Amino acid sequence: MASDTKKRRTETILNERKYEEGKWLHTILTLCYDMDTKSSIILTPLKIDVCNANTSKGTSFSKAFCDTTQYDEGYMFGDIFGNGITVLTNYEEDESTPTDKPLLLVLQKLLDFLNSSRNINLPNKHSLQSISETELTVLVANHLLGKLGTSSCYLIDENCCGKKRDNCFCGETSCKMTGEYGDTSIGNMEVWHGNLDILINNDLAVKPLDENPDSPGGKSATDVKLRNDLQRNPQIIAQTIVFSFLQKKRHPERSNFLTPCIGIGSTELIVMLYDSEHDVLLESSTVPLFEQDLSLKFSFQAILVCWLTVNYKFFCCGLDERYRKHKSNFFVHAKEKIQIYEDKLTLGNVCNTTQLNDRNILLPPSKLLRSKKVHDNTATLLNCLKKVSQFEYPDSNDIGSTSSSK
Ligand SMILES: [Zn+2]
């Protein structure tokens, strides 16, 4: 009986499709090829010029500095998460679903999310500006990240300055917090260390951007400031690198150690990834969090990028040979202490935090490398999109042609 109900429920989720399919396909494609540089999600390899990963006394994340320059080549986000894009491509092509149970579960989670309202219902729209970045990050964890993975558990830094509460920051009494407060410290006192702001299911670090009470009111000025803080942010880089070494130590069985960390600003997010086996550091383009800045309706891109990132242990296929040559040189910079990074990092019982920032805006790379897999998926998705657009927008067949004219 119960399993019949469950089966029916599963079928409903898989067949429901209450979301705009053309727009969704278009979003998947923005991760697969360079449709137009503005909306494509690209991963840019970074090279560390100078950093304090190696100081004699050890450095907390809040005091971490790390100057980087970018390589001229970049990869598509969907290429690195090729296993996830393949799951979506197969589903879009002929509704086929993964036979692997965890993959089917996370696909259902995604479809369920897409079929729901995608909104955060704050009691009044303006209160988004009245909550802190940390509170917004908890809100995103509770309303988005926690809903897309195999588990909705997450841990919030018990030392965080925001108000600790049992119910969700959105204020709806029916909205329960699936996370709790605890010790999120990682690293080792002799090297980079500190508290992660949020740790999703013991597997993914999430970092809010700090508030800028002095930032000017003008939209574009705030935007620039925001990008400065989000991109090439030394704290996010330090956390990502330490977390990747830690994951390699905790999960030596994994096929690759390319480990992500999400940085969340008030309107955008980025994903930073570090491969502690091949020494490659990647930063994503910025992803809009909401459909419109104040809409509080999660954008398709944010949902897709977060879904792939939260489930990276299933979806991230690691770096293939030609992507491994873009070394970050962290191993060189941390040479004297590399054994501590390799062997002596821990999760919990490490130590404390404060702040720092600056940085340049990333330019899109001039060359993009793509694997055959992402190339094939792109072709299939474009075909699906063509079919859907004829159906959804009979008056315009731009979508397919604009993008393929590129
Ligand atoms: Zn809520």
Structural description of this entry:
Helix content is 39%, strand content 17%. It contains 15 helices and 16 strands. Helix 1 packs across helix 5, helix 4 packs parallel to helix 14 and helix 7 packs across helix 10. The termini are far apart. The C terminus is likely disordered. 45% of the residues are buried. The strands form 2 sheets. Strands 1, 3, 4, 5, 6, 9, 10, 11, 12, 13, 14 and 16 form a 12-stranded mixed β-sheet that branches. It has a 4-stranded mixed β-sheet with strand order 2-8-7-15, covered by helices on one side. It has 406 residues and is α+β, with helices and mostly antiparallel strands. The structure holds zinc ion (ZN).
Quick overview of this protein structure:
The chain has 15 helices and 16 strands. The protein is of the alpha+beta class and 406 residues long.
SSE blueprint:
Elements (H helix, E strand, L loop, with lengths): L1 H15 L4 H10 L11 E10 L7 E2 L5 E5 L2 E4 H4 L1 H13 L6 H15 L11 H4 L2 H16 L5 E4 L21 E4 L2 E3 L4 E4 L2 E3 L3 E5 L10 H12 L3 H17 L7 E7 L3 E8 L4 E5 L2 E2 L11 H11 L1 H4 L14 H4 L4 H6 L2 E2 L19 E3 L2 H21 L5 H7 L2
The chain binds zinc ion.
The site of zinc ion (ZN) has 6 residues, from helix 7.
